[in-house]
TrEMBL record, chain A:
Domain 2Fe-2S ferredoxin-type residue range list: 2-78
Coiled-coil region: none
UniProt keywords, alphabetically: 2Fe-2S, Iron, Iron-sulfur, Metal-binding, Oxidoreductase
Source species taxonomy: Bacteria, Pseudomonadati, Pseudomonadota, Alphaproteobacteria, Acetobacterales
Domain of life: Bacteria
The protein, known as: (2Fe-2S)-binding protein
One Pfam family it belongs to: Fer2
TrEMBL record, chain B:
InterPro entries linked to this entry: Ald_Oxase/Xan_DH_a/b, Ald_Oxase/Xan_DH_a/b_sf, Ald_Oxase/xanthine_DH-like, AldOxase/xan_DH_MoCoBD1, AldOxase/xan_DH_MoCoBD2, AldOxase/xan_DH_Mopterin-bd_sf
Protein name: Xanthine dehydrogenase family protein molybdopterin-binding subunit
Species this protein is from: Plastoroseomonas hellenica
Organism domain of life: Bacteria
Alphabetical UniProt keywords: Molybdenum, Oxidoreductase
A Pfam family: Ald_Xan_dh_C
The Aldehyde oxidase/xanthine dehydrogenase a/b hammerhead domain, residue ranges: 24-144
Family annotation (PANTHER family): ALDEHYDE OXIDASE 1-RELATED, XANTHINE DEHYDROGENASE
Transmembrane annotation, as ranges: none
Length: 167, 796
């Protein structure tokens, strides 16, 4: 069987995979990084989104072999070593942007990429359109949009910490 | 130094405890579990809607690499496994019990819907199991399929189950037909409407999964499963399917990624992996693909109804008459029979003073996936029917639709209010929720917005729904008399540890509702312990004494009430210990948020002093009191709870394409006392999104041969972020009068109140096109046809 070598959350791994093994299977089953989820089989839901070389990617639609040599970041790799949450994680908590938490890892990874690729800042409508690849069945998206709007201010250096949600 | 701690009790928007793990990928969902020596299962499913199984040849598959075992319906029959039980029995009009055909865990001799499980393959890896399943040869003899209500009831339709005449499960009714018919005969005006409540696929984002593990040394079975009610699964699976003592079976429902009803039921795969783990001597894991979920998770809704109001000359409702056909699917799912009866027809009074009601419901077997409760369950169907009929009536009577509703509201001073369809409402204030919603949504300013939209070439409409639901289910004796084969109490244990931290064991199950936070707030509020020191344990039959689980917006109203009762016991015992320690009489001890005080003095003991004394009983009334500080309470509700409110939707329709944009949505709901406003708002937001999905986007479609056409997320349209506007949510509280918290429930209101508000808005937007009713979902294609096929004045 072929081998794949890749860096995941800063750690190098080499694993044996089948030609048909998907990146999400490598992450979940071989590396036991179960934070990345599988919500569908038609590349519709975005529960599986990770960053590959800095871009958000649906790991359910990426062959493990295609990630050979890549640097992958998953939801497990976002918080700082001392446990400090990424501003996007912090904003999701502050704005109650998650309920069951199943879509959350993919949603957070997509949202970070969306904000990073739009340094000019996004309106709430633009955020909604930017989330076209992610489904959430619980929240109705309202609070996810608010959280991303709050996180972008911190990520772009406009604020030093996440604005409190209205009570 | 004064340390100011934030208030974390009832009414505070405490940020959720569970979020830390979910946000860091540390959730513990069923598919994340990997047991030592675990094997993987693949379920082979029927590609036919209806067929005889002439034979199953597993020889080639069995020889495939990695295969440990293949089991078919013949094997599970031979092993004596029981079928999946139904938890509710309905009796027909004539007193006969409903038809309750067997529901085998693997299809035996016949398959009855696409996705019906035919065999389970257990192999070393999931790919190997799947490859082997593809090598199984099933010899099917296709039979005529009847996926629709019409096809299943047609003369000469092929019976789906032997001995079930006409494919009728039951033909039930409520109310006095003669009285209602007489009211119609004497009415000033009557208004009728035929309407469909579209079939939905729940689609929790986490697909169902199950891991079965047999311990050959102890003979114990453990099932890890994506369930909303692990104790119920243990009871049904152990007693009915595997025929094991419950003491030998442990069911764990760890973090669950959404349920919305679809994870209440006992599913075949749960029993199959548990049983198969003993057959192959290894743990067995199964996780559904989304495609499998579409054809094996219980679906929701799927009603066809005719509804009629009789009015007097002042626009007061004299009577309501309803005839409904409900699609049960191919088998009875766990709670299916109660959904179109006691969760539906008993809601047909709604918020109105309708004096007499007659409803008849025919439940029909079809060659489709079983249908059961999905967020709201019966109540969305009742609300949609009433609120659409109300709008049609308003137009035909020439009375303003808000005024017509007001005229028929149950007044705020009429509670407790006995409806003609069994329920007795305890509290509500429908004028106030209506007024508040009209104000927030700026109903009065709508015509200006319509004109502004028209100038942009858009058709703008506004719609309203005033609704009520019954949840907090349910008083055991009442549901028992109506056919439930279970009690619907809840169980809570409060364990005060020696050092004063607290573990709560609850039979409620959290799969997104935030119980770890809300329940901790209850304890914090009552016992004065910081939320951080309260741990909520749920979802494991080995840890929690018993439980009926989470559905029907019952967790706070019933589960929370059980905790309150258990805390009362803790306080009562604590008072006796405090009295001993402070040498006072028990009657003189007061308790408030963590402090026991001798009334009128400054002599106090903290809760931790009491817990230390209880576990280190050196100075302790040991003759009269047991050591320890742990109490369990079962709480059986006295009545349902009755949340209600008003939803207003505003839409804009593109004349060229027919696409409906929801541009504003306002919900003002009375959910009783609010424990955590942030979480309540989130629950309503999510419910509204599902209701809007039903109204505008979602529809589960079978073709005439019973093939599932909308069988993937590419074909079944789930709401995405840009399908929804910001949703305004507010609450207006009247307290529930019969539970200790005054709570009513908020999990389902969004999905119940919103669909008719949206459709009423769509019909309003099309008022120049002479359209009386539009079936859900109001897709662009339907609207385009109305706009282009219309001879209404705007089209002229
Ligand atoms: S799992 Fe759904 S898009 Fe990847
Ligand atoms: S939080 Fe449950 S699917 Fe998004």
């Amino acid at each position: 069987m072929p081998h794949v070598t890749l860096t995941v959350n800063g750690k190098s791994h080499t694993a044996e995979v089948e030609g048909r093994t998907l990146l999400v299977e490598l992450l979940r089953e071989t590396l036991r990084l179960t934070g990345t989820h599988i919500g569908c089989d038609t590349s519709q839901c975005g529960a599986c989104v990770v960053h590959v070389n800095g871009d958000s990617v649906k790991s359910c639609t990426t062959l493990a072999l295609a990630a050979d040599g890549a640097s992958v970041t998953t939801i497990e790799g976002l918080a700082a070593a001392d446990g400090t949450l990424h501003p996007m994680q912090e904003a999701f908590r502050e704005y109650h942007a998650l309920q069951c938490g199943f879509c959350t890892p993919g949603m957070v990874m997509s949202a970070i990429d969306l904000v990073q690729k739009n340094p000019q800042g996004l309106s709430e409508q633009e955020i909604r359109e930017g989330l076209e690849g992610n489904l959430c069945r619980c929240t109705g998206y309202h609070n996810i949009v608010k959280a991303i709007a709050a996180a972008q201010d911190v990520m772009h250096g406009k604020r030093s910490e996440i604005a409190r949600a209205a009570e | 130094m004064n340390v100011v701690t934030p208030f974390e009790g009832i009414g505070a928007s405490v940020r959720r405890k569970e979020d830390f793990r979910f946000l860091q990928g540390k959730g513990n969902y069923t598919d994340d579990l990997n047991r030592p020596g675990q094997t993987h299962a693949w379920i082979l499913r029927s590609p036919h809607a209806h067929a005889k199984i002439r034979g199953v040849d597993i020889a080639a598959a069995k020889a495939m690499p990695g295969v440990h075992g293949i089991f078919t319906g013949a094997d599970t029959e031979a092993a004596g496994l029981g079928g999946l039980p139904c938890g509710w029995q309905i009796h027909s009009k004539d007193g006969t019990p409903m038809a309750e055909p067997p529901h085998p865990v693997l299809a035996f001799e016949r398959v009855r819907h696409v996705g019906d499980p035919v065999a389970i393959v257990v192999a070393e890896t999931r790919s190997q199991a799947r490859d082997a399943a593809e090598a199984i040869i099933v010899d099917y003899e296709p039979l005529p399929a009847a996926p629709s209500l019409e096809q299943a009831q047609a003369a000469g339709a092929t019976p789906i189950h032997e001995g079930v005449a006409g494919n009728i499960c039951y033909d039930w009714h409520i109310g006095d037909k003669a009285v209602v018919d007489a009211a119609f005969a004497a009415a000033h005006r009557t208004v009728a409407l035929d309407l469909v409540n579209n079939r939905l696929v729940p689609n929790a984002m986490e697909p169902r999964a199950a891991v079965g593990e047999f311990d050959r040394f102890t003979g114990d079975y453990t099932l890890y499963t994506t369930s909303q009610n692990p104790h119920v699964i243990r009871l049904l699976m152990a007693a009915n399917v595997l025929k094991l003592p419950e003491s030998k079976v442990r069911v764990v429902a760890p973090d669950v990624g959404g349920g919305f009803g679809s994870k209440i039921y006992h599913y075949a795969e749960e029993a199959l992996v548990t049983w198969a783990s003993a057959q192959v001597g290894r743990p067995v894991k199964w996780t559904a693909d989304r495609t499998e979920a579409f054809m094996s998770d219980a679906h929701g809704r799927d009603h066809i109804s005719r509804a009629e109001f009789a009015f007097d000359k002042d626009g007061r409702i004299l009577a309501l008459r309803v005839a409904t056909q409900a699609n049960m699917g191919a088998y009875l799912s766990t709670f299916a029979p109660c959904v179109p009866t006691y969760l539906y027809a008993t809601l047909l009074a709604g918020v109105y003073t309708t004096p007499v009601i007659y409803a008849e419901v025919k439940a029909v077997f079809t060659n489709t996936v079983p249908v059961d409760a999905y967020r709201g369950a019966g109540r969305p169907e009742a609300t949609y029917l009433l609120e659409r009929l109300m709008d049609v009536a308003a137009r035909e009577l020439g009375i303003d639709r808000v005024e017509l509703r007001r005229r028929n509201f149950i007044p705020a001073d009429a509670f407790p209010y006995q409806t003609p369809v069994a329920l007795q409402y305890d509290s509500g204030d429908y004028q106030s929720t209506l007024n508040e919603c009209l104000r927030v949504a700026d109903w009065a300013g709508f015509e200006a917005r319509r004109a502004e939209a028209a100038a942009r070439g858009k058709l703008r409409g506004i719609g309203i729904s005033t609704y009520l639901e019954a949840c907090g289910i349910a008083p055991s004796a009442v549901v028992g008399s109506l056919g439930a084969r279970a009690g619907l109490y809840e169980v809570g244990t409060i364990r005060v540890h020696p050092t004063g931290s607290i573990t709560v064991l609850t039979g409620s199950h959290s799969h997104g509702q935030g119980h770890e936070t809300t329940f901790a707030q209850l304890v914090s509020d009552k016992l004065g312990v910081p939320v951080a020191q309260v741990d909520i344990v749920h979802g494991d039959t080995a840890k929690v004494p018993f439980g009926m689980g989470t559905y029907g917006s019952r967790s706070l109203a019933v589960g929370g009430s059980a905790m309150m009762k258990a805390m009362d016991k803790i306080i009562a015992k604590g008072k006796r210990i405090a009295a001993h320690l402070m040498e006072a009489s028990v009657e003189d001890i007061e308790f408030d948020r963590g402090t026991f005080r001798v009334a009128g003095t400054d002599r106090t003991k903290a809760l931790v002093d009491i817990s230390v004394a209880a576990y280190v009983p050196h100075n302790y009334p040991i003759e009269e009191l047991e050591p320890g500080l742990e109490e369990t309470a079962f709480y059986d509700p006295k009545n349902f709870t009755y949340p209600g409110g008003c939803h207003i939707a505003e839409v804009e329709i593109d004349r060229e394409t027919g696409k409906v944009d929801l541009v504003n949505f306002t919900a003002v709901d009375d959910v009783g006392r609010v424990i955590n406003p942030m979480i309540v708002e989130g629950q309503v937001q999510g419910g509204v999104a599902q209701g809007v999905g039903q109204a505008l986007l979602e529809s589960c479609i079978y073709d005439a041969d019973g093939q599932l056409v909308s069988g993937s997320m590419m074909d079944y349209t789930m709401p995405r972020a840009d399908d929804l506007p910001p949703v305004g949510v507010a609450t207006h509280t009247t307290l529930c009068t019969h539970n200790p918290l005054g709570v009513k429930g908020c999990g389902e209101v969004g999905a119940i109140g919103s669909p008719p508000a949206v459709i009423n808005a769509v019909v309003d937007a099309l008022r120049d096109f002479d359209v009386r009713h539009i079936e859900m979902p109001a897709t662009a294609a339907k609207i385009w046809q109305i706009i282009n096929g219309s001879h209404g004045k705007a089209a002229a």
